[in-house]
Design brief:
Layout lengths: L6 E3 L2 E3 L1 H9 L6 E3 L7 E9 L11 E3 L7 H8 L4 E10 L4 E5 L10 E8 L4 E5 L2 E3 L7 E3 L5 E5 L5 E8 L3 H8 L9 E3 L10 E2 L10 H14 E3 L4 H28 L6 H15 L6 E3 L6 H9 L17
Parallel strand pairs: 2-14, 6-15
Antiparallel strand pairs: 1-11, 3-4, 4-5, 4-6, 6-13, 7-12, 8-11, 8-13, 9-10, 9-12, 16-17
Helix pairs in contact: 4-5, 4-7, 5-6
Length: about 325
């Protein structure tokens, strides 16, 4: 989700020793390597599709067997009063890092990633769009993951954060983006052995066909971010043609929705249009980027829009980036 500043900190604190004890009690088998095999990165899944050992962001989100053993961490999550999507413990080995990137996938268009550090040291730094912070243990942070960001663990010990995805309620955003009181007035959410909160988790968000209103919203956002790497006349001409292609695509998608609805009927027509737009976009997209993070315009079109137009069981195979 795009934010007005790289970082926001919540005025709330958590019991570090209790969190650390629950994380330390996890068995070795709870930890899995990073899905992209990034060296030194591993995770323990807490909320996942079906509560299973998967990194998918599609499906009914449920607590995993590992989260079931962590009562205070469940209280921490429940304390935010939001609906949670995929959530994990993310571990960085000493000397490891997260390479610079921007999160451009469809999943991130409406979601933000909450970080609650559990094991960390001052040498761990989180960088986002030229700013750098140390997120201390027991704090809570969000950041603008549309901007370029990376993490460095220059400490001699593992860094472990609770990392949880949500769209957030109005109250969540009012606290996150509001003026913070002096730290001495911050609330601490203490462990309460007498409560066992029921977490709110996302249902399956997929529909057979993406509604025209959502397509327009995604495409308009992409068009507003479109920029050229150089101001050459040819690049500006291609940018104008790329922009017009996207505008025409929305018109045609809306017509197909009017004809077939969004329940899955007429799926071949929707797939043909998606493939045709991708084919037409490829020769126009060279040198076209997003203003905020310099990501490839074609890659954003693929990963944020085209790959999600039709439900996974019949989705067009568009682009080589997956």
């Amino acid at each position: 989700m795009r934010l007005s500043h790289p970082f926001f900190q919540f005025p709330v604190l958590f019991e570090v020793a209790r969190l650390q004890a629950e994380v330390a009690a996890l068995p070795t088998e709870a930890w899995v390597s990073h899905p992209d095999s990034v060296p030194g990165n591993s995770a323990a899944r807490l909320i996942s599709a079906g509560g299973a050992e998967t990194d998918s962001v599609h499906g009914q989100m449920l607590a995993t067997r590992w989260l079931a053993t962590m009562p205070y961490l469940r209280q921490v999550l429940a304390g935010f009063g939001v609906v949670w999507s995929r959530s994990r413990l993310m571990r960085l080995a000493p000397g490891a890092g997260v390479p610079e990137h921007a999160d451009i996938n469809y999943h991130w268009h409406t979601r933000v990633r909450l970080h609650v550090p559990i094991f960390t040291r001052t040498e761990v730094r989180f960088h986002c769009d030229g700013q750098s912070v140390h997120m201390a243990a027991g704090e809570a942070w969000i950041f603008d993951n549309w901007r370029p960001h990376h993490v460095e663990n220059k400490a001699s010990a593992d860094r472990i954060h609770l990392v949880a995805d949500t769209t957030g309620t109005a109250a969540f955003w009012q606290v996150a983006r509001g003026p913070a009181p002096p730290r001495a007035q911050w609330r601490t959410l203490n462990w309460d052995p007498g409560i066992n909160p029921q977490l709110l988790t996302e249902g399956d968000q997929r529909s057979p066909v993406m509604p025209a209103a959502e397509v327009q919203w995604l495409v308009d956002d992409l068009r507003a971010e479109l920029a050229v790497a150089t101001e050459a006349a040819e690049a500006l001409t291609r940018a104008a043609r790329f922009d017009r292609l996207l505008e025409d695509f929305v018109f045609d998608w809306r017509q197909l929705c009017a004809l077939h609805g969004v329940g899955g009927r007429g799926r071949p027509d929707f797939l043909r249009l998606a493939r045709a737009v991708h084919a037409a976009a490829r020769p126009l997209a060279e040198g076209l980027v997003m203003r905020t993070n310099n990501a490839s315009a074609l890659l954003v079109l693929e990963k944020r829009v085209l790959q999600h137009l039709v439900a996974d069981d019949a989705a067009p195979q568009i682009g080589a980036h997956g």
